[in-house]
Amino acid sequence: xxxxxxxxxxxxxxxxxxxxxxxxxxxxxxxxxxxxxxxxxxxxxxxxxxxxxxxxxxxxxxxxxxxxxxxxxxxxxxxxxxxxxxxxxxxxxxxxxxxxxxxxxxxxxxxxxxxxxxxxxxxxxxxxxxxxxxxxxxxxxxxxxxxxxxxxxxxxxxxxxxxxxxxxxxxxxxxxxxxxxxxxxxxxxxxxxxxxxxxxxxxxxxxxxxxxxxxxxxxxxxxxxxxxxxxxxxxxxxxxxxxxxxxxxxxxxxxxxxxxxxxxxxxxxxxxxxxxxxxxxxxxxxxxxxxxxxxxxxxxxxxxxxxxxxxxxxxxxxxxxxxxxxxxxxxxxxxxxxxxxxxxxxxxxxxxxxxxxxxxxxxxxxxxxxxxxxxxxxxxxxxxxxxxxxxxxxxxxxxxxxxxxxxxxxxxxxxxxxxxxxxxxxxxxxxxxxxxxxxxxxx
Amino acid sequence: xxxxxxxxxxxxxxxxxxxxxxxxxxxxxxxxxxxxxxxxxxxxxxxxxxxxxxxxxxxxxxxxxxxxxxxxxxxxxxxxxxxxxxxxxxxxxxxxxxxxxxxxxxxxxxxxxxxxxxxxxxxxxxxxxxxxxxxxxxxxxxxxxxxxxxxxxxxxxxxxxxxxxxxxxxxxxxxxxxxxxxxxxxxxxxxxxxxxxxxxxxxxxxxxxxxxxxxxxxxxxxxxxxxxxxxxxxxxxxxxxxxxxxxxxxxxxxxxxxxxxxxxxxxxxxxxxxxxxxxxxxxxxxxxxxxxxxxxxxxxxxxxxxxxxxxxxxxxxxxxx
Lengths: 443, 321
What we know:
The complex is a heterodimer.
Chain A lengths: L1 H15 L2 H27 L4 E6 L15 E4 L16 E4 L12 E4 L5 H22 L4 H11 L6 E5 L2 E5 L1 H36 L1 H6 L4 H36 L3 H12 L13 H14 L3 H29 L5 H24 L6 H6 L6 H9 L9 H29 L9 H9 L3
Parallel strand pairs in A: 1-2, 1-3
Antiparallel strand pairs in A: 3-4, 5-6
Chain B lengths: L1 H10 L2 E11 L4 E11 L3 E5 L6 H8 L7 E6 L2 E2 L2 H4 L3 E4 L11 H11 L4 H14 L15 H13 L5 E5 L7 H16 L3 E6 L2 H7 L2 E6 L2 E7 H7 L4 E6 L11 E7 L2 E6 L5 H10 L4 E7 L3 H9 L13
Parallel strand pairs in B: 3-8, 3-9, 6-7, 7-8
Antiparallel strand pairs in B: 1-2, 1-4, 4-5, 9-10, 11-13, 11-14, 12-13
Helix pairs in contact in B: 4-5
């Protein structure tokens, strides 16, 4: 055990001290925060302003069509597709003669192509204008209609989960996001750290240092030392990322104007409502509050615990297999490619299942995939995000964890036996069939 | 002879005894019932062509492989790979290091794996680095070293923890004569201090020079076991070199056969039933002036080739382990 500890230390410190590790660890959160900031910046500043000329033959929606802050509709006369640009319009919209009960198309012509979001926004404006017009035709007066519109804005869907006596606000969008993000993160880390283990084993074998070390320690100790050491590197990286992201976001929050900060605080104190005098909170403050409020609906301690458990379990499960493959490779790294295939296939397959499960956490395939250790680290994370015990019962979670522990004990045992033979064997092309022969022969 | 063996067994202080070791792979008997003893403080040569089973034998002695059957006794008690690794220093033929790791750190790490404390290891490494004039290497990486330099480093790492048994597999390959001598002198010094050295090679001239005792293995079996001098005696072919005064000559006759002659130097083989004295008598009777007369013992190389030739052991690479 003492010697395994030495190996763990070497594997850990030689990687953590490496410049690449430091760069990757510190640049990744900056990159993520930077990407988010950039996308927010472009969505705010990069808005296109469109001035649309509308040809409405019988003036059907002239009164009901509302402008937005990106789109300005106007109804000029003497305009057609040949002169709208000269007259200063970006687009021209040609409406048909609306007839009751008959479907008809309207045409939008532009010089610059239009984004999907903008197109959808225009079409929804027109449709609601038509709807309004029809309601007015049916005898509802404009002022009543306006008050209905205003009144209907106050309602918002809030889903709650029933948990015995208490119920808790739930948020499917957030669950999907967490499930997807943690599944993706586990998927990526399995590949990154699994490949790191494999390369490490290959390095020791092709460097021929394996034999020197194996004359001092047992092959199993060497393999476990490497797997645990690299796993610790992974955990360190996650920990640094979490600290950095929390640090960066709170630093970013410090840059908010003070009035927005105080409004957010007021919203927090009053459960989403502004205090008496003020009618409406600032839009940014409202968004920040909404974001914080949404994030608070998730069971973070459970999610973080499960994430660490499934990351470690999945890592141990796959890293052992990667180590076994690494031990069989000779000088030619190409050999590794074909041997890795049976390991990467279930990983990719699990990722596909995870994508499905993030939308629907309770199908039979979701259940089984979250029990089988090949896919459970990713799939169970996607399900756990929907809540325990509402989406996943406690016994399901416990069984899945137990299966994963049994799974990595098995793969570690199996790989240990393959590794022991493979690490000292040179000049022979190894197949999975031979590897299984090694695994099950007597010592 | 039986009495002699018994006597020898009783007096020899065996550091390592191999008893009926067997290790079979799927398609071949890598080590097939091999037994021998290695005396404490001796330099022992383990010889054999490629694929004879030497590496498998050494891997069993170092605890890397378990024998299928048979016993390994270290200092009279059963060898326990878990505890006894610290008593062994093994320098495999295929030498390797972590290329990106600093030499000093690497040596400390490998010494710690042999059970030394960090402080103890550092002190010992400094001593050896100074001795081998390697002090300036401490912060270099292995990838910056030449082959000979890394070989020296490997030797230091092998002997650092003062093992009782030092196993060197082809220790001189890739070394220039100067460094080879440096290592050779160290091997003698270590043996003198009481370490036992197993020296595995197929370079026979080195074995003849360095080893006290040898074992020759081929196709997984022991085919020769004894002291270098004893084996040479065993395989002598009654060959002698004769040097006579220029101008005279000798030729084959009933007593001896001339195998080779260059100028006035002859290599003769004494025929069955005659002795050296018969030869000398013959030369004197012929009134030939004798300048030199020596027994020619076969070299280990010749014995090796004679014993191993035609067995095609080279084809027995490590298939189907």
